[in-house]
Amino acid sequence: MADVLLEVRDVVKHYPVRRGVVVQRTVGSVQAVDGVSLALRRGRTLGLVGESGSGKSTLARLLVGVEKPTAGQILLEGTDVTRMDRTARRALRQKVQMIFQDPYTSLNPRMSVGEIVGEAFELHPASAPAGSRQAAVQELLELVGLDPDHVHRYPHQFSGGQRQRIGIARALAVRPSVLVCDEPVSALDVSVQGQVINLLRRLQRELGLSYLFIAHDLAVVRHIAHEVSVMYLGRVVETGPRAGVYGSPRHPYTRALMSAVPLPDPTLRGRRDEIVLEGDVPSPSSPPSGCRFHTRCWWAGRQTADGSVPAPCRGEDPRLTGDGDHLSACHFPVAGPTGAGGAADGLRTVAR
Amino acid sequence: MTDDPTGGDRSSTEPLLEVEDLVVEFATSDGVVRAVDGLSWSVSAGETLAVVGESGSGKSVSSLAVMGLLQTPPARIVRGSVRFRGTDLLSLPRAEHRRYCGDHVAMVFQDALAALNPVYTVGFQLTEALVARTGTSRREARRRAVELLDLVRVPNAAQRVRDYPHQFSGGMRQRVMIAMALALDPQVLIADEPTTALDVTVQAQIMTLLAEIQAERQMALVLITHDLGVVASVADRVTVMYAGRAVEQAPVLDAFTRPAHPYTAALLRSVPRLEALPGEDEDAELAVIPGRPPELVALPPGCSFHPRCQRSVAGCRVDPGPALRLVAPGRRAACHLAEEQLADPPVPVAAPAPAEEVRGG
């Protein structure tokens, strides 16, 4: 088993909700991340999946040091970075770099590609090359599959996929060991998504990088992640190796999420069962008691004769448990594999 | 699926809405760009047509032309017709065109927040449209507004009509948009990426709702999307667009299992899949389409797809490019090599799921 490079331990991030214009008082808090633990191993990819409000992007911001956790530890190579002084944190930022979702807004339109990528050397002088910076930038461009002669071009002269490559080159400039990728391909066309995924996988092999790959698209995550964690309302509800999470998801939310993904296969139409969840994700400022998913859970009602939600689901916060490394936070974990054809037992189809 | 085995051959189903040989150009700083080039499609009552393409393929422009919503200039409709039950909407004056659409053809957009007015309540916006268009009393319109929100399953509709758009979640806003589109009982609903901005569990709710409403009312549905999964799960027929042209038109089952155009085939191979295909090596590279979609200002000669096409031969690089032609019953493709493509082994599909003890509901 590869060693753990970056570890998140019981991390909490609450944002205060304030009322009042002159005298502000705190009336509550948005529990964006509420007790999350993750372990990212060297040279591996951890996929982090969730819908809006799940806290996955907040977690990314905590990891790159843009935000400070309310509680908990973030350990990089065993050192708690939340307790570091400024200089030490700067060194951390060099090791943990981020790739953003939108390659259209995350690159300064007034800077050439050479300036965008080379700027990293100024922010982290320790990583600057001894020789020519331009040569170093060109080498980076080549590494991510761009023409090194385009170093003087501006972002608008590139397509979305190429811009995402520029973002990757910028992140790689300071020789990080971890890349936090926040929805890196969701703004790209299907025919280009695969190119960027393949590039990230090649770079991982060649440079030994670790990725935290955040996405809402379960199909994309399956093609890159070794381990997968599923988040719901600030909590990890299921985590494990890819084969386990996709092959026999144990949390009813994971099953619902998978069944909701429309598959590009019309022969499955009418042969997929559907788990259509009712309602929306509750507000993270007042999450439900007990299991946070119980208000939308399709599985809980089947545990009682009268279809009511069992008391533990309403009253007791489930812990992540399971055998081996496949864990789920559910009082009544779902057993059994998913269908041979689908990744979930009940896959949505629209009856016609 | 419709019962029509030919996939909507014109002789057997009466089309409600027909787009024919539509050409739309845009004046840009780089010159005139042909965003839609000779596009034809049609849709009948109770049928779902999906128009699929990547960004810049022109899939949305045709629907804006249908609705009379193109800004002219910079857009210019060079030629073509849009016929609703035989009436050519493009020959009508703009105002009449818009009114005609209001009565018969409705549209739902991707971004519901931008399409709703933030300073009026949802109920006001719904009643306003009803009063203006049907001449009913305000009281009657209010009753109908609640009914419409009920229809799209907005909980507590009677209370929620008093709320403003920002008080609704993304999924609820899209429901409100669908309610507005249904207000005047349209016969055709055009939905342009209706679920792209939504979470996947909410997307499932909205697609289910659209399909139910369509089946109930025997509406024609034109679904514009980039999502092949959505197409496979709801559409009857599909038009695949590339660089402004329709490159393949076929019943969905045919297009997805035996594509006739190499672009359709390549797209299906490159889409990330949730389920491992039989014998798939999960650590192998993802299949990709090399290169990127062409710039419309500088289209390659001949077939626009040839620089990225694995099958391309010398003839593909020669103007004029391949025309959309009948390649099998009910199927059209714009490719010189469609017959070869059709002879390829079918796109692998996942094995059918066995009956499960766990069923969602």
Task: Please tag this protein with its features.
heterodimer, A: 352 residues, alpha/beta, Rossmann fold, seven-stranded mixed beta sheet, four-stranded antiparallel beta sheet, 10 helices, 11 strands, globular, B: 361 residues, 2 domains, eight-stranded mixed beta sheet, 12 helices, 32% helix, disordered C terminus
Describe the protein's topology.
The complex is a heterodimer of chains A (352) and B (361).
Chain A: E1 4-19, E2 25-41, E3 45-49, H1 56-63, E4 71-76, E5 79-80, H2 86-95, E6 96-99, H3 113-123, H4 133-143, H5 160-172, E7 178-182, H6 190-207, E8 210-215, H7 218-222, E9 227-232, E10 235-241, H8 242-247, H9 252-260, H10 311-315, E11 327-328
Parallel strand pairs in A: 3-8, 3-9, 6-7, 7-8
Antiparallel strand pairs in A: 1-2, 1-4, 4-5, 9-10, 10-11
Chain B: E1 15-28, E2 31-44, E3 48-52, H1 59-67, E4 75-84, E5 87-88, H2 94-104, E6 105-108, H3 112-115, H4 122-134, H5 138-151, H6 157-160, H7 170-182, E7 188-192, H8 200-217, E8 220-225, H9 228-234, E9 237-242, E10 245-251, H10 252-257, H11 262-270, E11 325-328, E12 331-333, H12 338-343
Parallel strand pairs in B: 3-8, 3-9, 6-7, 7-8
Antiparallel strand pairs in B: 1-2, 1-4, 4-5, 9-10, 10-12, 11-12
Helix pairs in contact in B: 4-5, 5-7, 7-8
Fold and architecture overview:
Helix content of chain A is 27%, strand content 22%. Chain A is an alpha/beta fold and 352 residues long. Chain A has two domains: 4-17 and 29-225, 3-Layer(aba) Sandwich (Rossmann fold), CATH 3.40.50.300; 240-328, no CATH class. In chain A, the strands form two sheets. Chain A has a seven-stranded mixed sheet with strand order 6-7-8-3-9-10-11, with helices on both faces. A four-stranded antiparallel sheet of chain A has the order 2-1-4-5. In chain A, a hairpin with a 2-residue loop joins strand 9 (227-232) and strand 10 (235-241). In chain A, helix 3 packs parallel to helix 5 (160-172) and helix 4 (133-143) packs across helix 5. The longest helix of chain A is centred in the middle third of the chain and has 18 residues, at 190-207. Chain B has 361 residues and is α/β, with parallel strands linked by helices. Chain B folds into two domains: 15-235, 3-Layer(aba) Sandwich (Rossmann fold); 258-273 and 288-343, no CATH class. In chain B, 32% of the residues lie in helices and 22% in strands. Chain B has twelve helices and twelve strands. In chain B, strands 6-7-8-3-9-10-12-11 form an eight-stranded mixed sheet, with helices on both faces. Chain B has a four-stranded antiparallel sheet with strand order 2-1-4-5. Chain B is globular and about 70 Å long. Residues 1-12 and 352-361 of chain B have low confidence and may be disordered. At the A-B interface, helix 5, helix 6, helix 7 and helix 9 of A face helix 7, helix 8, helix 9, helix 10 and helix 11 of B. Chain A: Pfam families: ABC_tran, oligo_HPY. Chain A: This is ATP-binding cassette domain-containing protein. Chain A: GO terms for molecular function: ATP binding; ATP hydrolysis activity. Chain A: Residues 6-258 form the ABC transporter domain. Chain A: Keywords: ATP-binding, Nucleotide-binding, Transport.
